[in-house]
Amino acid sequence: MGTNSLYGPLDPASDAGYTDAPPRMGFFTDTSVCIGCKACEVACKEWNAVPDDGFTLLGHSYDNTGGLSADSWRHVAFIEQPAASSVDALAVAAGGPATPDFRWLMMSNVCKHCTHAGCLDVCPTGALFRTEFGTVVVQEDICNGCGYCVPACPYGVIDQRKGDGRAWKCTMCYDRIGDGLTPACAQACPTQSIQYGELDELRERARERVAKVEGARLYGHDPDDGVGGDGAFFLLLDEPEVYGLPPDPIVTTRDLPAMWKRAGLAGLAMAAAVAVSFLGGNR
Amino acid sequence: MAEAHPVGFQYVVEAKNRGAKIIHVDPRFTRTSALADEFVPMRAGADIAFLGGVVNYILSNEKDFREYVVAYTNASMIVSEEFRDTEELDGLFSGFDPELNVYDQSSWQYAGQQHMGQQEGEAHADRETASGLEQESHGPPIPAGVPRDPTLQDPRCVYQILKRHYARYTPEVVERVCGVPKEQFLGVCEAWTANSGRERTTALVYSVGWTQHSVGVQYIRTGAIIQLLLGNMGRPGGGVMALRGHASIQGSTDIPTLFNLLPGYLPMPHHRQHETFQKWVDEIRHPEQKGFWANAESYAVSLLKAYWGDAATAENDWGFGWLPRLTGDHGTYQQVLDMIDGKIKGYFLLGQNPAVGSAHGKAQRLGMANLDWLVVRDLFMIESATFWKDGPEIATGEIVPSECRTEVFFMPAASHAEKEGTFTQTQRMLQWREKALDPPGDCRSELWFFYHLGRRIRAKLAGSTLDRDQGLLKLNWDYQVHGDEPSGADVLREINGYRVSDKSVVSGFADLKADGSTACGCWIYSGVFKDGVNQAARRKPGHEQDWVAREWGWAWPADRRTLYNRASADPEGRPWSERKKYVWWDPGAGEWTGYDVPDFEKTKPPSYRPPEGATGVEAIAGDDAFIMQGDGKGWLYAPSGLIDGPLPTHYEPAESPVVNPLYGQQANPTRKRYAHPANPENPVSAAYPYVFTTSRLTEHHTAGGMSRQLAYLSELQPEMFVEVSPQLAAERGLEHLGWAHIVTSRAAIEARVMVTDRLRPLRIDGRVVHQIWMPYHWGSSGLVTGDSANDLIGIVLDPNVLIQESKVGTCDIRPGRRPTGPALIDYVNDYRRRANGDQ
Predict the structure, then answer these.
(1) How much is the pLDDT for A2?
(2) Is the ipTM of this complex over 0.90?
(3) Is residue B700 within 8 angstroms of chain A, CB to CB?
(4) Which candidate in B697, B760, B764, B771 is best for mutational testing of the A interface (most A CBs within 10 A)?
């Protein structure tokens, strides 16, 4: 493990020990063309046999999924944004401006497949592993349901399934991409809001796109960010918080070496103290 | 479009990425609005006022494509001087008969042709039989040879009549009637006209909710007038496209599931109007008319030969006597009321869930509960199969399961992936579908069901000498079968048509004969099996061929991808512009050529003028681009064929809280009403102060039969809800996620409340009008259940095609759940009594 394995830019597949790994694959989700059809959610569940997560009207605009969970590996968020100055529609009806800058933002969220994946770092069984495509996958037959990975994710993505206990999340359709197929969500997306491909190429495409769309910004594209860049990154039309994304995610294991170092020192000091006390006892 | 047609919407997104400006006009802010550059909220039911305003803008600013308009539309035709417009008669046209509520149309005709107009009796019969539907493939009859004024100055020419008719549809009036601010409206006009002309074209795309109005046909007509004025018909990138509600709705009118049509828009014979074969055929082709419809006899004989084979002979009029006859209105809504009245014994439902999906759900269910038998073929046990034990009328006591007399037979159906066949989409394109897997259990295709039903009935009737059985016994009921499944390809071959002598397939409808030597199941589809090849199964990818992509599927008629494409060239046959080059005259070769199959006689030059007294194909001039119209022209003004007037006129919906600001005539005077105790109408009353409209959510499919049974779809929209603006919520005390109930004179239904800025109050004619929106997917069975929005709607229909007004009505909304049990009936009735009292 290199010194920067837990932080900063690197190629995760070769870092994980793959030689001649294929190019790192990823998702670029362009929310400016998302129409909120949720075909990604359905296609994901169909392909991966993910169970439904209940029939509850949430009242969060058209979002009745609520968020990513063990039973929802894609989640389309709907954000109704009234104009900055709360518009009085009756005043509008009386002859005010007809189209106040109301916006309805939609965004298909997914596991970020971080360069530095906290979930993977903390997994004690090896159930979570880095694939040759640079993605992060849970092996359901190895996971023992310890749940360490859940608080380790800076995005709150990975989750334990109720009544099962094991951790589940997006695999970027590991069982499809190995055969050269597109992940189910990207395949089903009618407007190419979800694009799948080689991460380098997607980042290039995103750079061009963000220059064209007014008010757009990229999220998770930067290898210098707190998780070393995401394998699944986004073009957003507003601040990340608006979509329920952390503004400055940092891999939870970033400080682990320093902590271990400190813990190690503390341990040594403790051992020394014990030794000293024994010495003292013998006296 | 993004809501109901997300897959098709990808092309809108693509266009936007290439710089197109997207304008979305809708009563509420939808997923489509979310991606549009501009959202234009307007009042439901005021579309003709809006579009009429566009017509007025075009004409008063001379933005029409004048050369196109003069050459290819009927703008220059002179109309009878007896014609009186709505301007003079306060919202009525001349010839109105207030007793029958129809028009004597004589005065609407072109000058000198007043005798061609329908008398009110004929118009009444046409309304009963929705005869407007026959015009899908051709215009209504009109004789050749009409006086014209190419300068468009004659006060009685269509252009000037149009100008006067729409003069009052000013931007100020649009604002008053539709609630769209003047500046915003003008922005739409400017965008539409700027993107039309020689170099550019605009497509008008609508979803079929647009037709579901008591003036539905006239909505589409207004759109067509604009597209004709701007030169957007018959040209690439232009047209008027209907986005269908689901797969092959176009196909189900081409080869109809409608009571009044036979395949290829041949009319179902009427017992009085079509007593003989000759009368029937003459009514279709009109011997004095010009155009291709003159060959109707070949199509009709070939259809009867396909039905009855060798038994159809010249001596027995090709079996014409065995065809069923219309005696009046046998439309679905008349039938439902007849069921309630005990006049109908049995009913087949195939892939349809009227208990949830049709207007006035309660009438649908009460009707179905009063049959001897009901056959339901569907994928799941839908409400139309289970209403007798779990419909809302059980709680009210109106249906008692132990006493319900209807015997229901449920036949499980194969889904589209489990059977072969074709889909026909809005471009009239047939696409062949392979079978992907066997249907489970006893599920079977429609083809299987009808083939074996016919076989068994014929076996039961074998030997019968009764006249009424002969039509069935003599049917040509012989299809290839694989196992016991009939071959879809074999049926498609019969639809294509063949020579009776050697069963060889014909190449197109031009090969069809009136002498009984050919058989053809649907003349407009003739050519789909050309050369013995299933043309609908062609699948050459777009990037391997030119942009018209003619090697993908097959489009009727004759594989033309754009109808009336002669209009893509100027009167001399030259492309209007290099950019919009499509079909043109090649003087060297002496023929029409281009990217598409020319929709014109191949070697008829642009300069051709018919000899005096010519009829049929010979009468089509070299610049008559609209070859299926009786006069060869695109109709801005419809001198016949429409029951409710030659020009679209703004009428208020049958139920509206607004007094028509434009005319004394409140609603469409010829709308089809059904006075029946089961079908009360909302009066104009403070009791029903709000406008409501309904539509679909992306997550569900129509009446829910295909989505409420699936967990992955049901979880995405798990409950019936109603969308209201924050202002209306405050006015009525509605709370987000709380319960509310909605009341009309038919029903009260309950729903969870969604308070959202996506709905906005509008200022209409000086006062604030609130609109409410509801999805209509829920019913009493499935993984997720709820009240049905269609229960609120009454039965009132467009007079031309008998489509129901189900996209706008009036209602009240109150906080809290609705009453249950018999108290619900009292509640609805009390509301109605109060409404009628304060009229």
Answers:
(1) 45
(2) yes
(3) no
(4) B760
